[in-house]
């Protein structure tokens, strides 16, 4: 990548800058205590994490709505550990989870360092499939909102990554062009293939060491963005 051509850097938020799994685990521990639920949070999370990812895939593909995602991922995870809860309890847990999730704001290693480095040379932006009200809180409460000139979320656009519309919307909002932009994210399908499909350059944040095309630029620590930018 000739970084002279790049003026604008777009980041995904969850699992890329904001450590979703760590913050989510802490939120569940807290809401289980609040609701006096005698559940082994580690056992719950082993089931919840893959279930949550599967629900987000359905949500990205427009197969379910926000409420179905929020209810279904919890209900399925409790059923997987043989805990039967009333619908009302699951709805309350779902609300409590959203309320308390953004009170934990662990970032991935070197997030602040790399944002400080990049903002001197590039305009920085966010493109996220996450829910508007929650993503805003994550950015402000983890104290990284000031780094980003624009934040595009799927609820503003009405479609989700990898749909090309969300990338084109974000580029228009940033007042830049595809060939001056690069997308950085952890989800190969949503972030990398989605951006590639409109001709945008990409860097894959491959924290889980997925086996992907060797032509794809990839890093396993955010500080390694310095190799490319």
TrEMBL record:
Gene3D superfamilies: HAD superfamily/HAD-like, Putative phosphatase, domain 2. GO terms for molecular function: 5'-nucleotidase activity. It comes from the Bacteria. This is Noncanonical pyrimidine nucleotidase, YjjG family protein.
């Amino acid at each position: 990548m000739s970084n002279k051509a790049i003026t604008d850097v777009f980041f995904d938020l969850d699992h890329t800058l904001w450590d979703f799994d760590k913050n989510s685990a802490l939120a569940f521990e807290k809401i289980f205590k609040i609701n006096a639920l005698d559940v082994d949070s580690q056992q719950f999370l082993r089931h919840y994490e893959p279930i949550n990812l599967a629900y987000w895939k359905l949500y990205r593909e427009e197969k379910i709505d926000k409420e179905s995602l929020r209810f279904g991922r919890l209900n399925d995870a409790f059923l997987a550990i043989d805990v039967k809860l009333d619908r009302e309890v699951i709805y309350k847990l779902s609300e409590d989870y959203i309320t308390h999730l953004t009170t934990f704001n662990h970032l991935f290693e070197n997030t602040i360092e790399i944002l400080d480095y990049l903002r001197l040379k590039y305009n920085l932006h966010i493109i996220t499939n996450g829910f508007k009200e929650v993503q805003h809180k994550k950015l402000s409460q983890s104290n990284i909102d000031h780094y980003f000139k624009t934040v595009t979320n799927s609820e503003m656009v009405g479609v989700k990554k990898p749909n090309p519309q969300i990338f084109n919307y974000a580029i228009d909002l940033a007042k830049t062009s595809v060939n001056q932009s690069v997308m950085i994210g952890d989800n190969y399908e949503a972030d990398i293939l989605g951006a590639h499909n409109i001709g945008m350059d990409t860097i894959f944040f491959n924290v889980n060491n997925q086996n992907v095309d060797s032509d794809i630029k990839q890093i396993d620590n955010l500080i390694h963005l310095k190799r490319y930018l």
